[in-house]
Specification:
The complex is a heterodimer of chains A (280) and B (346).
Chain A: H1 2-29, H2 34-40, H3 50-59, H4 70-101, H5 107-116, H6 126-135, H7 142-146, H8 153-164, H9 168-176, H10 181-192, H11 194-209, H12 213-218, H13 227-235, H14 246-276
Helix pairs in contact in A: 1-14, 3-14, 4-8, 4-11, 5-8, 11-14, 13-14
Chain B: E1 2-12, E2 18-28, E3 32-36, H1 43-51, E4 58-63, E5 66-67, E6 78-81, H2 93-104, H3 108-122, H4 137-150, E7 155-159, H5 167-184, E8 187-192, H6 195-201, E9 204-209, E10 212-217, H7 219-224, H8 229-234, E11 241-248, E12 251-254, E13 257-260, E14 267-273, E15 279-280, E16 286-289, E17 292-295, E18 300-306, E19 309-315, E20 325-329, E21 336-338
Parallel strand pairs in B: 3-8, 3-9, 6-7, 7-8
Antiparallel strand pairs in B: 1-2, 1-4, 4-5, 9-10, 11-12, 11-14, 12-13, 14-21, 15-20, 16-20, 17-18, 18-19
Helix pairs in contact in B: 2-3, 2-4, 3-4
The chains are: A mainly alpha (280), B alpha+beta (346).
């Protein structure tokens, strides 16, 4: 018993070291200045430059236009992450609601059509998607960043399964209580789906926050750059002999990792609750 | 005055299944009518049609003086209590009770008054701010009834509301439900497959079988003079003895036995007699052998044979053992005769 637990913990500790090691090194290295890193490589000790580096990353106006700060990029990332997650939840809930509660011709067929879009991820349809967004004049806008991504087969599938497990009697009781389709959705289904929504929000927020390919295509204006993109931007050297800002790039990577990490830590319990149990 | 009048109602599902085949039932003001029958007999379908949850294929349902066939459930002035309570899990008890009233747009103070009144009647005042999952089965059942009461409906519809409770609580809730309905003087329909529930609750029983009405009557009528062999076998535990006989001149022949009947019918028939109406009598005309005995506590169920057909007798005495022989008398006044082909009472 005791030996089993010891073994379990050893495995976990090794896992944690393997997973967290690089992040720790990134944090420690980012506390040195760029010249030192250039000469001596990654560091495990503590340099004295920590606060200055992070202040620079967050508030120093850099980039080509000289107007972009890390804080602005963080905000862009947040807008993308939240817009992406909320959009996906709204769209997939409505789609699932229609599929489960309304009888319309070929309903099941349309569900499987939606489901089959899982086979067509963004990377496959990137050219036509770009073409559409471009023609709608949505390049360099938050709408262009978010809107084309919010259709979600996975979300629709999850909500469909959830709605199907809501007892029919509840629907009927609501009908007798005079709740029309809209009221039923708002008053009954949405509150019942709360934990489910939280779980999907977390997953989708992280996915949205980490988007890389799509933002690169859609935004060329630095004011719409996200943190994830910013990392590369920092490393870009405009004058050949200059030493890249290694410390700032690492600092930005850490900053880019923080919000999704925080979201998961804070919502972890709700997340698990949403996956394993539902209030019915 | 009739609260509810169901006229020639038919339910045909899109796949062609006939669930209800032309049913006529009327519910008088303040009356508690029980629909009873085996599963699949159409009793729940009928109830759901009255509630408006199912479309009526043919016929008319008239509630409180107007035909409600095409009226939405919420506009019908009915209240329904579901088998699994169907409480809104995310709302408090108060929220559950008031939700329908809020949707009707009633003023706040009137809602509060009605909720308080219902809570007082059902003694659930202290739970008003709890969520359904914090309540026991019996308490949830009360809340479900409360939700029906606050609507102040023309008729209550109960869809096997007690079947999820344990036996003891079920008996208690059954009594409460009956007293409550008496007190409110509101008509009610109660659907169940449990004939004991039907007998104890009903002012009148509607026995349904395969989508058709077998018999409508008071519990006593249904028990004492079942209209068909189906009713005879369904109502009463143990069920009525049903024997294939040939009747001639006031005597039914069962194998070699001759049973006197008070009927001028002649020819083949089915003879019915309740097990507890058979008298053990040392002078009796029929001798039989105990095959098995079932102990029921207050009484014993003795399985024997009459004219080589299975025959049960309820008796109080303890002495019966398998293999014992005894004699019985079958009082002619207690005998029912049914047609062999149609199963209807003769």
């Amino acid at each position: 018993m005791y030996r089993d637990r010891l073994r379990d913990h050893l495995v976990l500790i090794v896992g944690v070291i393997v997973m967290m090691g690089p992040i720790l090194v990134a944090i420690t290295t980012s506390s040195y200045d760029r010249v030192y890193i250039h000469n001596h490589g990654m560091q495990i000790g503590w340099g004295g430059n920590f606060l200055e580096t992070y202040r620079n990353v967050l508030f120093y106006k850099g980039g080509f236009s000289g107007e972009v700060t890390g804080a602005l990029m963080a905000m862009n990332s947040a807008i993308l992450g939240i817009g992406f997650a909320v959009g996906k939840i709204v769209v997939s809930m409505l789609a699932a609601y229609a599929i489960v509660y309304f009888r319309f011709p070929l309903g099941t067929f349309f569900f499987w059509v939606i489901f089959s879009t899982l086979l067509l991820p963004l990377e496959v349809r990137i050219l036509p998607s770009y073409e559409v967004v471009q023609q709608m004049g949505l390049l360099n806008s938050y709408t262009g960043l978010i809107l084309p991504l919010i259709a979600s087969a996975t979300g629709t599938f999850y909500f469909r399964q959830f709605f199907r497990s809501v007892p029919d009697e509840l629907v009927e009781a609501a009908r007798i209580d005079g709740a029309g389709p809209f009221r039923f959705f708002i008053d009954i289904l949405v509150p019942l789906s709360k934990t489910m929504m939280a779980a999907i929000f977390i997953i989708m927020f992280v996915v949205g926050w980490n988007q890389y390919l799509w933002p690169i295509l859609i935004t060329t204006d630095e004011h719409y750059f996200t943190l994830v993109r910013g990392i590369k931007q920092v490393l870009q050297v405009y004058i050949g002999a200059d030493i890249p800002e290694y410390n700032e790039a690492l600092a930005m990577a850490i900053l880019a990792m923080l919000p999704p990490g925080l979201v998961i830590v804070v919502f972890q319990r709700m997340f698990i609750k949403g996956l394993v149990e539902t209030e019915k | 005055m009739k609260t509810l009048d169901i006229r020639n109602v038919v339910k045909r599902y899109p796949n062609g299944t006939l669930a209800v085949k032309g049913v006529n039932v009327a519910v008088e003001e303040g009356e508690l009518v029980v629909f009873v029958g085996p599963s699949g007999c159409g009793k729940s379908t009928l109830l759901r049609m009255i509630a408006g949850l199912e479309d009526v294929t043919e016929g008319e349902i008239e509630l409180a003086g107007r035909v409600v066939n095409d009226i939405e459930p919420a506009e019908r002035n009915i209240a329904m209590v579901f088998q699994n309570y169907a409480l809104y899990p995310h709302m408090t008890v108060r929220g559950n009770l008031s939700y329908g009233l809020r949707n009707r747009g009633l003023p706040k103070d009137e809602i509060a008054r009605k909720v308080a009144e219902a809570a007082r009647i059902l003694q659930i005042e202290e739970y008003l701010d709890r969520k359904p999952r914090q309540l026991s089965g019996g308490q949830r059942q009360r809340v479900a009834m409360g939700r029906a009461i606050v609507r102040d409906p023309a008729i209550f519809l109960f869809d096997e509301p007690l079947s999820n409770l344990d036996a003891k609580l079920r008996n208690q809730m059954r009594l409460e439900l009956k007293q409550l309905q008496r007190r409110l003087r509101t008509a009610a329909i109660y659907v169940t497959h449990d004939q004991v529930e039907a007998m104890t609750l009903a002012d009148r029983i509607v026995v349904l079988n395969a989508g058709e009405v077998e018999q409508i009557g008071t519990p006593e009528e249904v028990y004492e003079s079942p209209a068909s062999t189906f009713v005879a076998g369904f109502i009463g535990a143990p069920p009525m003895n049903l024997l294939e006989v040939v009747v001639e001149g006031g005597v039914a022949l069962v194998g070699g036995e001759r049973v006197a009947v008070a009927s001028r019918h002649a020819g083949p028939a089915i003879l019915g007699i309740r097990p507890e109406r058979v008298q053990i009598d040392p002078e009796g005309a029929h001798e039989m052998e105990v095959e098995a005995v079932e102990e029921l506590g207050a009484t014993r169920l003795v399985h024997a044979r009459l004219g080589n057909q299975p025959f049960t007798i309820t008796q109080d005495a303890r002495e019966a053992r398998p293999g014992d022989r005894f004699r019985v008398t079958i009082p002619p006044g207690e005998v029912s005769l049914f047609d062999r082909g149609t199963g209807r009472r003769i």
